[in-house]
Amino acid sequence: MPAIRIETFPESALSGGVTTHDGLPDRGITIASSGPAVLMDIHRPGVNLAIWHRPLPASLRGGALRALMTAAPFTVVAVGTPQELPDRLAEELPVPVPFDLMLDLADLAAGFLVLDGGTRVRIRLEALVHDGCKKWHADAVGLRMLCTYQGPGTQWLPMDGGAPAARALDGPVPARSIGQMPTGAIAVLKGERYRDNEGNGCIHRSPPAGPGARARLLLCIDQTEWNLEE
Predict the structure, then answer these.
(1) Residue 128: phi, psi to the nearest 5?
(2) What is the DSSP string of 116-133?
(3) Which of 104, 77, 5, 80 has the alpha carbon at shortest distance from 47?
(4) What pTM was computed for the model?
(5) What's the rounded Cα separation, in Å, for the pair 172 and 174?
(6) What are the pLDDT digits (tens) for 114-134?
(7) Percent of the chain, pLDDT > 70?
(8) In angstroms, rounded to a whole number, what is the distance separating the alpha carbons of residues 217 and 199?
(9) What 3-state DSSP class applies to 216?
(10) Fold (topology level) of 6-223
(11) Domain residues of the chain, as ranges?
């Protein structure tokens, strides 16, 4: 199992051609930056994970999400345009939520459509008090966007092989080989059904929930034709 390899570039480097380094593998690449433009690089050949290291918006820190987390566990799903999603989610959520959270969800859905080229998305917002999908896996989707608003972020492995490699993992994985997305960060994962990407879907899992673990508030955005778990 290789140690974590994350390529972090300034925005000026990301806006032009492909940036390469000696010894960089041509598959299973993770690319990260402090700016949102990095998410467009998910379409580069070999890249299966792009991470925008976005701090959690100030309006969603502190106790802003306390009422929502108190209502855990729950899962709500909505399909529609970014403009339709806030109202559709609000109808299903167990408690009223901050307007700033709804605004952020709509903005991220709009950003996903820029990457995906569609007009509607499937959005899932859930508060988890257990492991969720704790097994290593790669999704049978084209692209998927994840953001953890509360609690520990999704874990990933810097390796290729996609779903078959994930299924073959047996026993514990060395901690130094596991990446973890920061709370508030935006990640776009390339799945097994992205064009010419079979066998290179991003391998990831929900972080294991030990005794006393905090609840997680997770956002997942997919293309509308897929209906899969994290």
Answers:
(1) -105, 135
(2) H--S-EEEEEEEESS-SS
(3) 5
(4) 0.86
(5) 6
(6) 999 999 999 999 998 876 667
(7) 83
(8) 29
(9) strand
(10) Jelly Rolls (2.60.120)
(11) 6-223
